[in-house]
Amino acid sequence: MSNKIRAIVAGATGYSGVELIKLLLRHSHIELVGAFASRTAETQPLSTVHPQLMGLTHLQCQPYDEKVVSLLDAQLVFLGTPNEFSNEVVPGLIQAGATVVDLSGAWRLKDASLYPKFYGFESHNPKLLQQAVYGLTEFAHDQLRNAKLIANPGCYPTTIQIPLIPLIRAGMIDLSQTIICDSKSGVSGAGKAPNAGTHFVEVSESFKAYNVFKHRHAPEIAQGLGLEFSPSKLIFTPHLLPINRGILSTIYVRLQPGVTREAIHNVWQETFAGKPFVRLFTGSQLPEIKFAANTPFCDIGCVVSENQAVIISAEDNLLKGAASQALQNANVALGFDEREGILHLS
Amino acid sequence: MSNKIRAIVAGATGYSGVELIKLLLRHSHIELVGAFASRTAETQPLSTVHPQLMGLTHLQCQPYDEKVVSLLDAQLVFLGTPNEFSNEVVPGLIQAGATVVDLSGAWRLKDASLYPKFYGFESHNPKLLQQAVYGLTEFAHDQLRNAKLIANPGCYPTTIQIPLIPLIRAGMIDLSQTIICDSKSGVSGAGKAPNAGTHFVEVSESFKAYNVFKHRHAPEIAQGLGLEFSPSKLIFTPHLLPINRGILSTIYVRLQPGVTREAIHNVWQETFAGKPFVRLFTGSQLPEIKFAANTPFCDIGCVVSENQAVIISAEDNLLKGAASQALQNANVALGFDEREGILHLS
Amino acid sequence: MSNKIRAIVAGATGYSGVELIKLLLRHSHIELVGAFASRTAETQPLSTVHPQLMGLTHLQCQPYDEKVVSLLDAQLVFLGTPNEFSNEVVPGLIQAGATVVDLSGAWRLKDASLYPKFYGFESHNPKLLQQAVYGLTEFAHDQLRNAKLIANPGCYPTTIQIPLIPLIRAGMIDLSQTIICDSKSGVSGAGKAPNAGTHFVEVSESFKAYNVFKHRHAPEIAQGLGLEFSPSKLIFTPHLLPINRGILSTIYVRLQPGVTREAIHNVWQETFAGKPFVRLFTGSQLPEIKFAANTPFCDIGCVVSENQAVIISAEDNLLKGAASQALQNANVALGFDEREGILHLS
Amino acid sequence: MSNKIRAIVAGATGYSGVELIKLLLRHSHIELVGAFASRTAETQPLSTVHPQLMGLTHLQCQPYDEKVVSLLDAQLVFLGTPNEFSNEVVPGLIQAGATVVDLSGAWRLKDASLYPKFYGFESHNPKLLQQAVYGLTEFAHDQLRNAKLIANPGCYPTTIQIPLIPLIRAGMIDLSQTIICDSKSGVSGAGKAPNAGTHFVEVSESFKAYNVFKHRHAPEIAQGLGLEFSPSKLIFTPHLLPINRGILSTIYVRLQPGVTREAIHNVWQETFAGKPFVRLFTGSQLPEIKFAANTPFCDIGCVVSENQAVIISAEDNLLKGAASQALQNANVALGFDEREGILHLS
């Protein structure tokens, strides 16, 4: 009999869900025992829902059912479900003893009062909200160990916090100047539900900004950077790219006097030494979406002119921005090698 | 006071509708006096529905209302409306005295018995169906003159009938062999309604065949070519291209003994002399979608090896496959230069 | 005999060149009499070089030859040629009496000393450089009238100067804060020469910043805005979008105390009243590339939060960013309606 | 010390080369010890050539050098090199004792007389040509065992031979009728060299047929199917899709009387039982490129109407059409599990 950790993916029909399933099928210590669809009523083979999984799994995809979690004796649950759904179901899952990695935004913000405005609902359990570990893995190893509830970071915030946190901690950024985060994401970030905004003809050969000054990732970024949530401190503008997957953020910061490109590189090198999923671009080449797409890495680089820095970061929004970071977090929480199921370990 | 023909476009929110509006705004003898949306209830500026029309028109887009046709004293109505809707409203419009150019499929098939199977409804008025002129303009000038009801051809059938009709009439094709029409269309051909099949992520970086052996354009093509509707005579396979607009058809026919590429070119040249919207590719260059996209032309060319011909045709599905052919037809019906509003006349 | 102005397009094989040719073929008072290719040796039909022009023109495309300008008695020459080429040939053309609209960057910068650094060559004629009219049409009507040499603005600078110039003139922007211009362009902006950076596989499903802090449009923008050329004043970061045509710029400015969105709209409305090619987006809808692509408009809009503004502008880089603005400029210089050949005049 | 097979990838800068490298880095019994670039002179890190490999390997990419093969004691060489280059170097590598898997076309055709016409060179060693094993893995297990030279099949031929060989062997196809293979490929199939045909703007929003009646894969397909190479027997038309990777083939065959869809499924099921890389689509869903892209599978399905079948097959041209099939072949030749390095083996 297998000694593997038994895991369930809820939200198995979504874009992050299927990526998570593909990763888990390659994991040596976790066994995928269930796949839930939060919004459909029928049980059907996962390979019917996602024909790309044919030949890889015989698992069935079934309607979400909390009782099945116990029936399957699952110790680990990944929620790739809508925000409001995660808000509802997490407390019950925790009580049932499962470790939960929630990929939605329902458990990310520490300030419960932001939920009605940015998510349209009240946080179900503000006390649990405080206990949730914000799983930006590279900065959360200690808290993640044995965590029961992990709030997986948003796709955009991951690309912004990874390069900025070390520089802010090192006091290199002039915070009296507005930090500008101009981010661009592929369409899978908008989810699988068809609507006018995801229609091929509306997206292809086009490009747009959206939710200017009001995207729900803005307060998450400010929280992660330890900044007051105000447009004079930080502006985050998301844009929609006519591609399937990948995010690139162009971040503008004013540096403290004397801070050079090399100094930034040094801080990053120290911070990310031994962190397998952050890659530094320190030469003339800067990160591009094609280098990071379909990989579990967050790539970062910068250019400095006088006291201004332009920082470029890129990731696959479905991997480091969702599924692979979720698995990274689960690996750390459960004591496995952080890379298990994500990178080949020889 | 203007002596222009007063026209209405119904279906103004759709992809063909907006193209038609753009063409009509450049017409010297037709004035666009109304724009109807068949499925929405609110009146709002066309430039709100289609921001690309800002600066070009102040017309309002209003819910479909047959009474408004009379109120506006419109003599010409273009219907870019759903098949079933066109089936319903055409008889009333005809009775009210308007000339109708219907861009749907509701009035194209002469055999009324095909409607339940291919369109899911009974033809409203089989007698009127017989009177409708099938507006493949290049082959219908005489019937179009003063026509009251014009059934504008399907996008796919236009690309297939234009090159094949002259060759079949000239007896050049061995009809004992199956004619294979392998067609590929951009996504605007699927209409503006968002669904799983038009979601950007499902279409981009992919390609698929659909409705194999059962697309409703198959009987239309057989009718246009004068062939029995049977897979042993003609196979039509549509595919979905990850582009916004354009169709390319690759057509395989066996030639009668001795028929050469030059002979085909000669027949085409004779047939399309004086026809401004068919372009012959007789050199080494074959039609490609990019040459025809955003133009009102149907481009045709062929390669012959032994007694087999591969015919390539291309068009913009929203123009020669819909809006510009509709205007071509209206121009002929009303006695204007066929090119009015479509090509610049110096 | 025609009284039309006789015009030549040099650089007829490039992406801007073909757009200019399409516009000129619709012009009532200008006749296209010649098409030059700056880098090829053979004379061949334009419709062979650009099959999309089949059926529209019988003109030949010939190697660049200054003598032919006189032979054809051309009074107007559009140069869609490489920067260095334009630098060389303009003085001769001016001397020969032609009105020249140069779409390259060779005659845009007033400070001749910037050419070696940003363009890799010395300006051929610094005195003529001072006389060249920078053709951002909306702000240059008076100087354009009877101008002999018009330097057509860069594609990026057009999207940035149009919204910012009126706001800077009105004193609404806090210039002590860095203006951030994060711009994104389609691939046609990179020209037609194939290289690793324009290979489909390298561009599609990707996105990147390029020439960070060193793009040659940066000094042009600073000059147009009347700002010192320094990263603490203005940062311009171009990015490559996986689309054919269109630019969107996201511009971040700090406003002077009390400046509201409405105040910005008011200044824009006053500035652009009677200017047919700038469209204001004053409602909830912001400019997107798809609204501006294939149109001659520059679209502008903004969102304000506290004292920060995010300005969004969009245009077709080949039209308002090149060919249609060139024709706008020629129209003004020659005393025609600014819209001739560009918008339908009823 | 490692007991792994030591392998080299030549052509490491190309699109197939990098895929092969990624697969080999995950292989339990093969160790990648060298990477050659056939056309460049500098040695540089693979992760500089392909930044997506950063964090995955520290291997250097060096100019092709046969002596290094011995120096590195490599027993296995993959050639992702140009046809003519493979033609030259294979005999020497074989003589040096290496097992060679050649991904080019240089060793695929048994009839040496076809090389001058279709490849532009004489086959270097017609005797060796006869000994080369054509590695369409599913049909070549026996010959592959201990093979020294494996000619990896073309990307298009793989999609056509896999579904057709079993049906032809079973006598189900009426070979008196022309078999039509209408194939569509992503741009990576055209290789990495930039040219007018791979320029983003020329490919995006377009679609074209190319090499009609003269593509070099046509004789390869005829050979694989055991058919006379003649347009009356088989027509193969390749087309260029505006996507990065993936091929879909639409294949038209006339069936022998009485052959049903179920009969076809039965033959396929028998043929491909135990073959992990062919997936059968037997329900209402047909193969689409998105299901096969980024997977090592060839997907097949069909629709039958009367005695006509439309067969749809799809694969990733860089994986089952190149790199993963090459590794499949090496695995079989060396006695490893066919799936090693390609699918996760638990």
What does this structure look like?
The structure is a homotetramer of 346-residue chains. The first copy, chain A, has 346 residues and is α/β, with parallel strands linked by helices. Chain A folds into two domains: 5-152 and 322-334, Rossmann fold; 156-315, Dihydrodipicolinate Reductase, domain 2. Chain A has 13 helices and 15 strands. Chain A has an eight-stranded mixed beta sheet, sandwiched between helices. A seven-stranded mixed beta sheet of chain A has the order 10-11-9-12-15-14-13. In chain A, strand 7, helix 7 and strand 8 (149-151) form a beta-alpha-beta unit. In chain A, helix 8 (155-169) packs parallel to helix 10. The interface between A and C is large, with 44 and 44 residues.
- Span between N and C termini of chain A? 25 Å
CATH architecture of the largest domain in chain A: 3-Layer(aba) Sandwich
What is the class of the largest domain in chain A in the CATH system? Alpha Beta
| Structural class based on helices, strands and sheet pairing of chain A | alpha/beta
Shape type of chain A = globular
Q: What's the helix count of chain A?
A: 13
* CATH T-level fold name of the largest domain in chain A: Rossmann fold
Total count of domains of chain A: 2
Mean pLDDT of chain A: 96
Within CATH, the superfamily of the largest domain in chain A carries the name NAD(P)-binding Rossmann-like Domain
Give the total of beta strands of chain A: 15
Order of helices and strands of chain A: EHEEHEHEHEHHEHEHEHEHEEHEHEEH
What would you call the quaternary organization?
A: homotetramer
For the biggest sheet of chain A, the summary is: 8 strands, mixed
Q: Biggest interface: chains and residue counts?
A: A-C, 44 and 44 residues
Helix content of chain A: 25-40%
Proportion in β-strands of chain A: 15-25%
Radius of gyration of CA atoms of chain A, rounded to a whole number:
20 Å
